[in-house]
Amino acid sequence: MAGCSSLSPPDSGIVRVPDKNEYGDLFYLEARVCRPDTASPAPILVLNHGAPGAGSTRQDISPPECSSAAVRWFVARGYVVVLPMRRGYGRSSGDWAEDPGPCSNPDYARAAREGAHDIGLTVALARKLPGTRRDGLVVLGWDTGGMATLAYAGSNPPAGTRAIIMAANGGTRGGSEAGHVCRPDLLVDAAGQLGTTARISTLWVYARNDRTVTPELATAMSAAFAAAGGHVTMQQPDAPMAEGHDLFFASAGAGVWGPLVERFLRR
């Protein structure tokens, strides 16, 4: 797909990221921008959303607010946080491209690469925002956004990319129900496929009580990714809530994953 080169005014809070599909039709991805209180150029963190359990609600979701605990944690550490909505989600236009296919035989790697395209487009244009640095880029994904982020790690990220972080990645659910992963064996296989081209450091954070992606499944995925050549640091903390899959955006979540992320980025 051919990219364009403009953004709506950076002080609007919401920016529109333009692109064209294979037919030359223009569409836009919506993204929220949250800035730290600093006059110095700041590094960028692109935070990628998950998928609702019911596909019919994809257009009902919206970018997290700048006031959310997870966003505030990164803004407080000097990051310009960009929160894009990928194709087919929220008010972003374009057809939903991340359908992995039937639950009996999902193609998780293909779906993840479609999401990685949207992440790449957002990164390219976010780096043109006033007041941002071209080095120190961090890309983070939660749930389905985690798999897209993992695919982005293997898509030749720009120079200056610092790290890739996955939080509670569950693949793309497609038509499956929330809390259920279709064909876990194929999710492991997809992690291996994506690891073949990923050469940037990745941090994987999965709560021990994640009932969507069990510790056993998360471990198998990270092992497949590493065996294929990917660089993995795995962390599996205890989450102070019944469903650990929700740790990242929980109000108390940053108290658990924050020190792990800070240590990883400092290293």
Relevant CATH superfamily: Alpha/Beta hydrolase fold, catalytic domain
Low-confidence stretches: 1-12
Number of domains: 1
Helix tally?
A: 6
Question: Which CATH class is shown?
Answer: Alpha Beta
Q: What distance lies between the first and last C-alpha atoms, to the nearest angstrom?
A: 36 Å
Can you give the mean pLDDT?
Answer: 88
The shape is globular
Q: What is CATH's topology name?
A: Rossmann fold
CATH architecture: 3-Layer(aba) Sandwich
Please state the structural category: alpha/beta
- Strand arrangement within the widest β-sheet reads 1-2-4-3-5-6-7-8
Beta-strand proportion: 15-25%
Q: Element order, helices and strands?
A: EEEHEHEHEHEHEH
Query: What is the alpha-carbon Rg in Å?
Result: 17 Å
β-strand number? 8
Characterize the largest beta sheet: strand count, sense, and whether it forms a barrel. 8 strands, mixed
In helices, the fraction of residues equals 25-40%
